[in-house]
Structure formats: structure tokens, C-alpha cells
Design goal:
The protein is α/β, with parallel strands linked by helices and about 230 residues long. It has two domains: about 140 residues, Rossmann fold (3-Layer(aba) Sandwich); about 70 residues, ACT domain (Alpha-Beta Plaits, 2-Layer Sandwich), CATH 3.30.70. The protein has six helices and 13 strands. The structure holds ribulose-5-phosphate (5RP). The site of ribulose-5-phosphate has 17 residues, from helix 2 and helix 4. GO terms for molecular function: ribose-5-phosphate isomerase activity.
Length: about 230
């Protein structure tokens, strides 16, 4: 199976975990696209009833609305039962890097407001250690050159993310993305703590101690790794 087929298989599989009468966080990305598509089908068929979705991006919001899935803003729900999202890299302790799609601030807010989190990935995302995928940061434009210089001084190898026209990528909240191309991350918790204390950084892509179940797309079918925490 190619990478896209693996993504589709885990996207479809993950919908088995969505129960009727629940609030569901909808992640962002090409793997989640298949999950939302399948959820829409099962919702329209009446196999899953009375759900409310909370989106992590305008892309996922539009897709879900187009399929007739009732949607609410995070502010308008008192809890989220389950969030299903993709990831860019997952290490052997099930810590993750997210933000390849620049949606990590909203994704982290939805994930941390969810009772349970499932990540869906193809097998190429599984790694011994984090870091071969650059770590995304969302930074506010005000003073961003200072933020950048601080990251350089820490030897974290920052690079502003640019679009196809060479312009700085803007997030949903009109912030910039800086990717840290630092290589292997030996102490993700220490790095996360440092990043959490940098004033100009709104969110970083280290998602630590968050995921409960991981579904990995493998050539012989999706592998469900339950209750990792
Ligand atoms: O974190 C994300 C977006 O900010 C995505 O979940 C992550 O980039 C995985 O995307 P894909 O499923 O397209 O490989």
C-alpha cells in the first residue's frame, strides 16, 4: 500500500471509536480528511447518531459542515469526549510532534480539552526518537526577530516557514510558523518546558503525555495500540 492508502485505512478504522451521543474533536490534515469523510458517511447512514464536532481548522470545519455533521465552537461545548487527529512523528514512548499543517495551536487546545485522544498515522511517522521532523512553533509577529534570535542562540536551528511564493506562512490566528530543524530531541519534556516559557511563542508542536490510542497504518492493515496512557 502507498502512503495515501495507509492514511485512508487508518482514517476509516478510527471512526469505529466514535460513539453516538458524543462530542468529537476533529483534527487537521490529509489523514484526518479520510476520517471526516468516513464519519460523514456513517452519520448520514444513521449508524452514528447525535454527535457534535469541534474542528481544529477551517479546512476540517468546512469539510464536516459539507457532510452535514453538526459543528460547534470549542467555547460552546462543556467537554469533548474524543478527539481524532493526525501527527507528524510519534516516538517509542508515544510522545508526538504536530503542526506540519500549522494548526498545532488549535489542535493542542482541542486535544487538552478532550477526555480521550486518538492519533492516526501511517507507519512512516513512527520513530525511536523525535526530531527528524522539524518542530513547528507558532510565534506572534510582534518582536518575532527577537524570538528568532533567542532560538538561534539556543542552537535550535530555527527557520521561518515560507509558502510557495516565499512569503511567511500565516496561521489561523495570523501568527508566523518557525520550524526548529534541530535533529534528534533527547529531552522532549525539558525542551517543551523551555519553549512554554518563551513569551513570543504561542504554541509549540510537542504534544507530550496526551495521546491514549494510536492507530498505525501498516501494509498488513491498521495496528491499534490502545491505552498507551
Ligand atoms: O499536526 C497536523 C497539522 O497541524 C497534522 O495532524 C499533521 O501534520 C499530520 O498531517 P497528515 O495527516 O497530512 O500527514
Amino acid at each position: 500500500m502507498n502512503q495515501d492508502e495507509l492514511k485512508k485505512a487508518v482514517g476509516i478504522k478510527s471512526v469505529d471509536f466514535i460513539e453516538s451521543n458524543t462530542v468529537v474533536g476533529l483534527g487537521t490534515g490529509s489523514t484526518v480528511y479520510y476520517m471526516i469523510e468516513e464519519l460523514g458517511k456513517r452519520y448520514q447512514a444513521g449508524e452514528i447518531k447525535n454527535i457534535v464536532g469541534v474542528a481544529t481548522s477551517s479546512r476540517s470545519q468546512k469539510q464536516a459542515e459539507g457532510l452535514g455533521i453538526p459543528m460547534k465552537d470549542l467555547n460552546d461545548v462543556d467537554h469533548i469526549d474524543l478527539t481524532i487527529d493526525g501527527a507528524d512523528q510519534i516516538d517509542k514512548n508515544f510522545q508526538g510532534i504536530k503542526g506540519g499543517g500549522a494548526a498545532h495551536l488549535l489542535e493542542k487546545m482541542v486535544a487538552t480539552n478532550s477526555h480521550k485522544n486518538i492519533w492516526i498515522v501511517d507507519q512512516s511517522k513512527m520513530a525511536d526518537k523525535l526530531g527528524s521532523f522539524p518542530l513547528p512553533l507558532e510565534v506572534i509577529p510582534f518582536g518575532c526577530e527577537k524570538t528568532f534570535a533567542d532560538l538561534q542562540a539556543e542552537e535550535l536551528h530555527p527557520e521561518f516557514r515560507l509558502d510557495d511564493n516565499g512569503k511567511r506562512v500565516l496561521t489561523h490566528n495570523k501568527n508566523y510558523v518557525i520550524d526548529l530543524k534541530m535533529g534528534e530531541i533527547n529531552h522532549p519534556h525539558l525542551l517543551a518546558e523551555w519553549l512554554d516559557h518563551q513569551v513570543g511563542i504561542v504554541a509549540h508542536g510537542l504534544f507530550l503525555d496526551l495521546v491514549n490510542t494510536v492507530i498505525v497504518g501498516r501494509d498488513d492493515g491498521p495496528e491499534v495500540i490502545k491505552d498507551v496512557r
